[in-house]
Amino acid sequence: MLVEAPRWRAAIEVQLSRLTLDAIADRQARYASAGIRGAWLIGYGVPEYEADPALPLFRLLPCGDGRRVPAVVPAVSRMVDGRLGLDRFTTKLLTGEVRFMPAAAEPHLVTVATVCWRCQRDIAVPLGFGNIGGHPVLAPGGFLAAQDVGKVPEVLAAYRTALPTLLLRRPDLAVLRPGRRETQGWMGHCPECDSAISPYRLHRAGGGPSGPTLWRMDGEPWAHDSAPQAAWAWIGP
Ligand SMILES: [Zn+2]
User: Fold this and answer.
1) Which of 64, 97, 166, 222 could bridge across to 214 with cysteines, CB 3.0–4.6 Å?
2) 91 and 138 share a domain?
């Protein structure tokens, strides 16, 4: 499908029969030389594909069990399951809500070491989430404070997915839950005595004495030598 706007042209190519990645890249280069931005919806897995800003490639899932609209998922996905109906996906694609996320911009959890104010146990408390794109108000500069995690469903979902692994790695981790008063937002809760610990206050105090620790959203400690893959993602519901 060719989309012509006053100042740009875009092609959305649905490819259900198998083409090699090289053949797709060739056709993409011909689009580019004709001044057309191309995006591909592929009906099969392309395991050798690595997310590339010059070659937007997504998986098209067939309509199953009565679904009337095919769904699209990123060919290389990160963080959350981003299944979208083809109609919504196309709207996002053409309005700039489908974004390329480079490998260095992986969302991560930031924790600091502190001491529980009540039971004095050494604990780790989440301060917030780094490299969160698409939320200029809640996450200015890409940092979402832990007390606001309940306001960003995709980050909350990713946190909940990561939590079992995080707790295996850090049994002293305070778990985020809504505070008793709504104005508090989400609070850390001491794994020993369940007292609420305010991430906001910790943040204001400059974090813990040993500096922050970063965690990937699959629950493993961040290691810069195991940089995650670049990916395509979309913003908004
Ligand atoms: Zn405690």
Assistant:
1) 222
2) no
CA distance 85 to 69: 6
Tell me, in angstroms, the distance from the centre of ligand 1 to residue 122's CA. 8
Q: Are residues 96 and 145 in the same domain?
A: no
- 83 shares its domain with 57: yes
Q: Are residues 123 and 195 in the same domain?
A: yes
The residue to which tokens 């620790």 are assigned: 213
Distance 133 CA to ligand 1 centre (A): 33
Domain that holds residue 188: 108-221
- Rounded Cα gap, residues 59 and 27, in angstroms: 18
- What's the domain count of the chain? 2
CA–centroid distance, 43 to ligand 1, in Å, is: 52
Ligand 1: distance of its center to the CA of 204 in Å? 20
Query: What residues are paired with 186 via a beta bridge?
Result: 178
**Same domain, residue pair 99 and 114:** no
pLDDT tens figures, 16-63: 999 999 999 999 999 999 999 999 999 988 888 888 888 999 988 877
201 close to 146: Cβ distance less than 8 angstroms: no
What distance in angstroms lies between residue 188's CA and the mean position of ligand 1's atoms?
10
**122 and 152 in a common domain:** yes
pTM assigned to the model = 0.52
